[in-house]
Amino acid sequence: MPTEERQLRADAARNRARLIEAATSLFRERGLEVGVAEIAEAAGVGRGTLFRNFASKEDLIAAIVAELMDEACERGRELLDAADADGALFEFLAEMLGRQQHDRAVTDAIDDTWLAREEIRDAHAEVVGVLDALVTRAQREGTVRGDIGAMDVLMLFKGLCSAAAAFAHLDSSLIDRQMDLLRASITADPVATPLRGRTPTLEQLDAAEIS
Amino acid sequence: MPTEERQLRADAARNRARLIEAATSLFRERGLEVGVAEIAEAAGVGRGTLFRNFASKEDLIAAIVAELMDEACERGRELLDAADADGALFEFLAEMLGRQQHDRAVTDAIDDTWLAREEIRDAHAEVVGVLDALVTRAQREGTVRGDIGAMDVLMLFKGLCSAAAAFAHLDSSLIDRQMDLLRASITADPVATPLRGRTPTLEQLDAAEIS
DNA sequence: CATTAAGTGGACCGGCCGGTCCGGTTGTGT
DNA sequence: ACACAACCGGACCGGCCGGTCCACTTAATG
Lengths: 211, 211
Known about the structure:
2 copies of one chain form a homodimer.
Chain A: H1 10-30, H2 36-43, H3 47-53, H4 57-80, H5 85-101, H6 104-109, H7 112-115, H8 118-141, H9 150-166, H10 173-186, H11 202-210
The first copy, chain A, binds a DNA duplex through helix 1, helix 2 and helix 3.
């Protein structure tokens, strides 16, 4: 139903596109807490126009975050074709991290509250799926330890992004070190540093998230 | 000057104590975003009384967070006398993590915005100091890699707490795994997984935070 | 008990934010 | 050119939150 409900008028379509563009760039730069007033202003339209296209701010966020997550999936799938398996996984994480430093939208959305939204949960599941493929491949062909899963890596990543945001004033070399430490943790010897519990499957995640 | 500016009246002292108690427990349970109205109500006083004791909500938060950070330091110093060095460091981190899962106040405060406040910055510096002592001792006598510093560990920890908060719906075994992964990263072989850059000193941190 | 200054708390203020509404505008089919 | 529906946008609403104010209460003192 996003295709065309009833053929928008030319100006309406243009305004909708501007809105999406403005919201995307503002959410990226400053996170999901930017106000609707600012988004409408940046798009050069009134607030009423925003709410005619998206019934609530939440809907707007869901639409844009899902789109951004899809982009990430795209890139992840490209990297699945890369030569070395380790490289693909870490390249993916490094790229995402690099983006998140100037793009807080997706990181903000990886969170209990937003994962309750269906669109975001679906897009998120897709991301986990791609990440799982990257992790599995790296485990088979690379040096990544066998006892972790996509969800473990995603949590590490989410933590790294949050920490990076909290210490934004520090220069980026700290972030580089954190990324290296993340790498160290998921390439460590599983015998020397055993993990408690087991990594959850996607189904378990969905079940938990719905509850 | 917190001792006694002018000898409080009995009821005033009692109300102040109630406010601190209520604010501490609410901040712990639900983070720093709880409203002043709720705090005053929980303390059984009016909002005016709250603002007479603390000029702003920010002042209230600063006072309470500094106190909580001091408590953490206390515990850290106790553990410095513990038998094994590794154990002390990880016991400290595990305890803090366990607390943070039901005590969001300190985690919320480890953040650019709040570290700008002098009291919090001072208390935070103290925490980093204790953590540095624990790390250094573990490096000398334990298996912790030599190329990390207190700040690296603190960032890992902050990340872990943020991720835990974001995925609060999942059962705690995921958090245990993350803690184990943290341990893996800081006990990994520095040659096999080298780190870029260098860990910052406390002085560099202060300089960066003031700017 | 009387006096008084310290203390109290709830009404009130202003600003912010998500969301609604409607008088005016503009694209579009005839 | 006309008419009409689709569309626009800013004025407006209600709720929330940090913070102020002042008429009233109460602890301390002699």
